[in-house]
Amino acid sequence: MKNKFLSFLQKETNITYTENGATALKTTNSNLLDLFGTIGSLRARDESEIERLFSTALAEDTLLATKMAFYARNIRGGLGERRTFRVILKYLATLAPEIVIKNFDAIALLGRYDDFYTLVDTPVEEAMWTYLKEQFTLDLGNYHANEPISLLAKWLKSVNASSDDTARLGKLTAKRLGLSEKAYRQTLSKLRKYIDVTEVKMSGQNWSEIAYEHVPSRAMFIYHKAFKAHDEEGFTNYLNAVIKGEAKVNASTLYPYDILEQLGLSERNSNFSFHHYDALLEEQWKSLPNYVTGEQNVLVMADTSGSMRGRPIHSSIGLALYFAERNKGAFKDTFMTFSSRPSLIKVKGNTLYDKIKCIPAIVENTDLEAAFNLILTVAVKNKLSADELPASLVIITDMEFDFATTARGNWTFYNSMVKNYAAHGYAMPNVIFWNVNSRNDVFQVTSNYKGVQMASGQSPSVFKSILANIGKTPYDAMLSVLNDPMYDLITV
Description:
Elements: H1 4-13, E1 15-17, E2 23-25, H2 31-36, H3 47-60, H4 62-73, H5 82-95, H6 97-102, H7 104-110, H8 125-144, H9 152-155, H10 164-176, H11 181-194, H12 198-203, H13 217-230, H14 232-243, H15 256-262, E3 266-268, E4 271-273, H16 279-286, E5 298-303, H17 311-326, E6 334-338, E7 343-346, H18 352-355, H19 368-381, E8 392-397, H20 413-423, E9 430-435, E10 452-456, H21 462-468, H22 474-482
Parallel strand pairs: 5-6, 5-8, 8-9, 9-10
Antiparallel strand pairs: 1-2, 3-4, 6-7
Helix pairs in contact: 3-4, 3-5, 4-5, 13-14, 15-17
């Protein structure tokens, strides 16, 4: 029989506060969910913090925690978090080396082959070199047989790299593959040429030989100015063909913030704007994978407060704009921002360059309460039915909300909003808290609270899982993501 005192004591000691004074929870009461709600937004956290969050999740469920690590790394369909995954991978290699060894194939499939360098100087290093040598030998055989090969050669370190650390790892790789440095260089060169690595043609000054339509998304994103500088006629012809719809440009591994950052998102007067127009980036924006399906009655609310400066605000605005454009429901081309006051944004214009000008600039406060109250006020004032309100609100934020003026006792910010809506005869819409910059352990509900889900990271692929799990508890929504068949290969 559960002790009432202990239950109340646990609730009391689970109370914390955001940086701006709002009541929150230290934990969802599930270490797995605590990690899930933050794992995509830990880029600014110390390695020790990442290890702490993962170790407690691992103790709760080894398989699900391991799946979560690979979900975080998954470049296509996951969060694409490289540093966080590598911190976890190195930690796991020491704590449970057998788990890492069992999942070498998953590292290659869901991440990149250069992730394996994280395992140098760990208990699994010998097994790692054996695995890479087997793949290297297989690729050589397939190369000579004119068969497809893996991308191993692309991601192996070069011995003649400008970075001392990269060159050191390149020399170590040559040694562990049983090759002289010269033979290693020559072998890498022919394998990279065989798989048509863009950088090989660039370094050889063979710019006109580059098939731009086949250049990977991130390489095109990084090098498109160099392509134009060295092959102006060829690249211009290609870009014109893309604009006309006669050629394609890859963008599968890009995120909205990539494009906003490259265009120089900044505040001018009272609104955001870009430093310049870039036709290639406009086309890559249009070519981002579409993870928004169906006519969803969903409204995105983007945090544009002062604490979001830098990449977090690029993510919140980029993701909000991405969803609004692709949404086919009642809120197509519409989203809200919140800071000291909420704003309803109607997306206008034919280009990303024009659309970004619709968005008000940063204001310091994080008054999410005002945004919730605006929705409620409009509903009450106009006697709207619940069906006429958004069915779900996606709040893209750093979770550091202002103190709620309607808060009582130890109500969390979210509980305060629920009670305020109920007092006016409305049920709170389903809410998704999407954390893009986790600086502290702050949560709004526990794991079994129905009608709230959690997400994290910068990837638009998160919208797919959000839309598929509306109405569930945070824990059940997490399970839906981690039990996706793409993670069936993960084993412990």
